[in-house]
Amino acid sequence: MIKILHYLFLIRFRKLVSKDDSIAMFLIVFFYLGAAVVVYINYEVFRNYMILFFVDVIAYHLQRRDIEILKLKKNYKTILFTEYIIYSLPFYLVLAVKKEFIFIAGILLFKIILINAPRLNLKVIRYPFNLFNAHWHISFRKYKLIYVFPLLVALIFVAVSYKNENLIFLVYLVLSFIACVPSFEREKTEEIKLNTFSAKKYLIFQLKNAFFNTFYLVIPVVVTLCLFQEWQKIVFILLVFIPPLINVLFKYIYFENHFLQQIIFSLFIASNIFLFGVPLLALPFTYIKAIKTLNTIKIC
């Protein structure tokens, strides 16, 4: 069982850890422990958000594909349960020290139900996204992003119940991040060259595509907020549209360097938060630069 758990850890972190890379594994463990220490020191700040530290395990379980293989072992449910406890063990220890035993029991019970629940086949879901950018469909199917939305609705319920408006803004942040994911993907340069649109028209269509597809994403959240009569918070939903549109521009400015796009985009969003949106004044120049880059791609 220990050997199986070892391989399961390697499989989960295969994108971050190469084979026999003990240093990387140590850094991941150190990160988890460090995060738990920070939460413990600032527990009163994180208390209402503790559930978020256990959500990643739920998302991982829903999208994993090795469960059918694990079923060949009679004790596969015990293996899964042990694996999920180990993933979140530092945060369980924080809750135990803070004597949140009911909370711990609730999480463990939920994981038992999750492991024993029948698998859902969501391959038949038809997304309403415009196909001008196929990466919206690809990203949602590849990363199983649809699973996030029930959790967002649950977060809104918690926010309203505990009168914690910060959780609603966290929902907006997650929505905005999801809407940015397709723009981190790349179409082939041949697709851009063969497209009959001019560089400007192509970029405009990509921006329209990002806007309307993001609109589809916010609908369930807006409906939920309406049910709870959180009218004042609905106005701020417009902020969700800004990062995805900006990311489309950076995608084409740094089309040849995916890593640089991520860095510049993150710095740009962070600077807007700390400088109260002043960097947004540079967007017209960013728009022009994106068109120039697209023209270069079409000509080459």
Give an overview of the whole structure.
- The radius of gyration is 22 Å and the shape is globular.
- It contains 17 helices and no strands.
- The chain has helices spanning 2-12, 22-41, 43-46, 55-63, 67-70, 76-87, 89-97, 101-116, 135-143, 148-161, 165-180, 189-194, 199-227, 231-234, 242-253, 258-274, 283-299.
- The chain has two domains: 2-116, no CATH class; 135-299.
- The longest helix has 29 residues, at 199-227.
- The chain has 300 residues and is mainly α.
- α11 (165-180) packs antiparallel against α13 (199-227).
- The model has no long low-confidence stretch (mean pLDDT 85).
- Keywords: Membrane, Transmembrane, Transmembrane helix.
- The chain crosses the membrane at residues 21-40, 75-95, 101-122, 143-161, 167-184, 210-228, 234-255, 267-288.
In short:
The chain has 300 residues and is mainly α. It is 70% helix and 0% strand. The chain is globular and about 60 Å long.
Quickly list its features:
300 residues, mainly alpha, 2 domains, 17 helices, globular
Number of helices: 17
Helical amount: 55-70%
Separation, N- and C-terminal Cα atoms: 56 Å
Count of distinct structural domains: 2
Q: What is the arithmetic mean of pLDDT?
A: 85
- The counted number of beta strands is 0
Order of helices and strands: HHHHHHHHHHHHHHHHH
Anisotropy-based shape: globular
Q: Profile the largest sheet.
A: none
Approximate strand percentage: under 5%
Uncertain runs are: none
Structural category is mainly alpha
Gyration radius, rounded: 22 Å
Keywords: Membrane, Transmembrane, Transmembrane helix
Transmembrane segments: 21-40, 75-95, 101-122, 143-161, 167-184, 210-228, 234-255, 267-288
